[in-house]
Structure formats: C-alpha cells, structure tokens
Amino acid sequence: MSIAENISKLKNELEPGVCLVAVSKTKSNEAILAAYQVGQRVFGENKVQELSRKYDELPKDIEWHFIGHLQTNKVKYIAPFVGLLHGIDSLKLLKTVDKEAQKNNRTIRVLLQFHIAEEETKFGLDLEEARELLSSAEYAEMDAVEICGVMGMATYTDDETQVRREFHQLKNIFDQLKAEFFGDKDSFSEISMGMSGDYQLAVAEGSTMVRVGSFIFGERNYH
Fold first, then answer.
1. DSSP secondary-structure letter at 100?
2. Which of 51, 133, 140, 211 has the fewest CB within 10 Å, making it most exposed?
3. Does 222 fall in a domain?
4. Can you give the CATH number for the domain in which 201 is found?
5. Which residues constitute the domain of residue 172?
6. For 87-109, what is each residue's pLDDT tens digit?
7. What angle do CA 188, 192, 193 make, to 5 degrees?
8. Cα–Cα distance for residue pair 160/65, rounded to 1 Å
9. pLDDT number for residue 119
C-alpha cells in the first residue's frame, strides 16, 4: 500500500473529529509530500533540529506538532511556528514555552503529558502534580500558552486490557481537570493518545488525536 492509500484507509476508519497526526520523524520530505498531496496537513516530529529544517523546506500550511520530550533550551528554535506541543511535563518547561511565545507575539497551544504506562522510561505528570501546576501563581501569570488537553502513551504490550485501562485512566484525568480547572474553556478539548499499534483502542476510549507513523510511512528509518 502507498502512503496515500494508508492515509485514506486511516481517515475512513477514524471517527469524525479525531485528528490524525502523521508522525514523520526520520522520514524524507518526499514521503511527507506524498501524504500532503492527499490532504494530510498535521505532522509530528520529535527532534527540534529535524523539525526546524522540515519547517523551512516544506509547505507553510503544514501544522507541525512536537511530540517528543522537549528540553527547555530547545524551545526557542520552534516557538516561532510550532502548532502544538504534546509533551509538557513540568512547570519549568511550561514557563519557558510561555516566555518564548511572548517573544514571538503568539500563543502556543500545549498538552499536559501524563505518565500512564507501567514502563519507567516514559515522561509525564501524575494528577496531583498537574493540580499543583494549574493552581500555581506562576501558571496564573502566563498569558502566551493555552493548555488544550492531555497526552499520554500506553505501555508497549500485547495486553489489550492493560492498554485500554491506561487509556481509560488518561480520559479520567482529562475529565477531572476539565471539571476542576477548565470548565469554561472550550479550548480544553484534546486527548492525544494512540499510535500505530493501538490507535483503535485509544479512539474507543475517547482519544481525539492519534499519532500514527509506521502505519502510514512504513517502519522507521534509524540513522
């Protein structure tokens, strides 16, 4: 199957309102353009340098999402153009994003990343840490970031029950934060969960945004 066929199969399968983020990390401009030519506009990258280069070289109506672990000293390179940051996992990082967004006279949309997997390697907040962040005086003073929802990655396992449970946990976190902090904010609406191997389970559990790479582009090219 071609990239175009893979995307149309996915879009037919996804429920209306679920955003498809085509994970294009390590992929060539040609592969990205093949997806672009069939209407895909949202792409996800996890390396700042690679993202900056692709932004310069590819069509300007692409909405670039940063989906990796973002270091504070790298925020300034993507702050002028990034569409959504999926991985806010600390107050320090959020403060840096706010500062860089102000320098660029724009508001940057972000998701709070939660640790829902049983693997130790994944980054992310827990619910109490998120409550502390959202109740903090520092957050109250920020006016150039917009928290639009939550993001998380399930454990890499064939156990569907476990994966569903972890996705369900993220949906619960979203619902609690919505009720406690964002009741009047329509913009707090995204639940970014689900990748090539588990996006169907994620959508069934309430995902509004799936991050799919290998299903679209084939297996990753490791440099």
1. H
2. 140
3. no
4. 3.20.20.10
5. 3-217
6. 999 999 999 999 999 999 999 99
7. 145
8. 27
9. 75
